Amino acid sequence: MTGSFFGTNNPTYTVVDQPPSTPTGYSAPTTPAPSSFFQDSGPTLQGYTPMLGPQGATGATGPIGPAGPTGPQGPTGATGSVGATGSQGPQGPTGATGSQGPQGPTGSTGATGATGATGATGATGAAGSAATVSVGTTTTLAAGSSATVTNSGTGAAAVLNFGIPQGAAGTGTVTSVAMTVPTGLTVAGSPITANGTLALSWSGTVPAAQLPNPTTSALGGVQAVTAVSHKWLSSISTGGVPALTQPAFSDISGNIATSQMNSGTSASSSTFWRGDGTWAAASSGAMTLLSTTTISTAQASAALSLSGFTRYEIELYNVVPATASTILELTLTNATVSPTNYTGTGWANTGSSLAADNFTATAYIPVTRNTGDTTTSTAGVSGKIKIFANTPGEMVVMTEATYNATGQTANHGGIGVGSGALTTATLAFSSGNISSGMIKVYGIP
Fold first, then answer.
1. What is the pLDDT of residues 36-50, one digit of tens each?
2. Using the 8-state DSSP alphabet, how is residue 37 labeled?
């Protein structure tokens, strides 16, 4: 490209453009520095800013250069996937049958095959007629000949005819025939000297040696044994020998009769069997538990049976009333009448002081304070009641009880008059039911 640039001295420059593209097979020289594009034909250009004209049209494509040498073969590419199988073509015509070849040699015999399964059993045939055998004739044959047996019947109904040779004539003379028998047997008619009959009979006892030994399934001989009062026959051996043993405690059932313990001497409802083998009365002062009453549901009263003793102790364990501020009352019943007049004195601990708690001609004996200090809390009435009825119809009663959560106590002593022996002691609150508690009754000798 040739153009004019204006500088200080207005020199003329020729600008040479770099080729736009590199032809095939062309080796371009080293690109010169930009300043080498300018061919200075004048003084040095200062303060110059080039101004380029518009780009010209693209030139025509040059001719194709000669083909370069073949490069080295590249690596083999991966095998492509197998294409789909094409449709089957039509079947061709059948060819002509060839001639038969010569027969081959006979092969060796194969191994014997396994035995087949046994066939089903055939049906049972009809029952045949039972065969019969009967005796026909018996013929005496000449001495020294052979015995014969012939069948004059059939195979199913035989008739046998026997031919028996006569014996040769004997020699000698028998003058007597006798018989001996074992012990226990007797023989009559022995000896026979001419003619007669020998007769056997049984007499006496069988010797032990002739008896078989016993077994669990057959009878046999058993020896005798001397009886022992405290032993029993426990077994018999296979030799017939019995064994005696004393029964074990586990062999005995039921209750021992009183008469079997020291013949029952001194035995009664108030005695017991001691370790020294005697009946004896219980020691004085030992209490006997007569009953235990447990109250778990509310009930109006607790009736306690009294019998067999003249002195009793009643123990109270947390007897709780259903209604507060009530009195636990005791009444006694004789054989014919209930006492209605009780008189006595008592003291009550109110929690802060002692207070007299007397009663006169009442229908009960108070167990708690006579003013009614009980509560329905779990701290019910606990204590003891002692009853003395040594004289029929007259009772002396002493009570001691603790009640309330504050630990109040009461003690009473009283007398009741009735008729006959005591039968019942009844406990009840002056109002309401007994909610819960336990009561035990003891007899004191």
1. 444 444 554 455 555
2. G
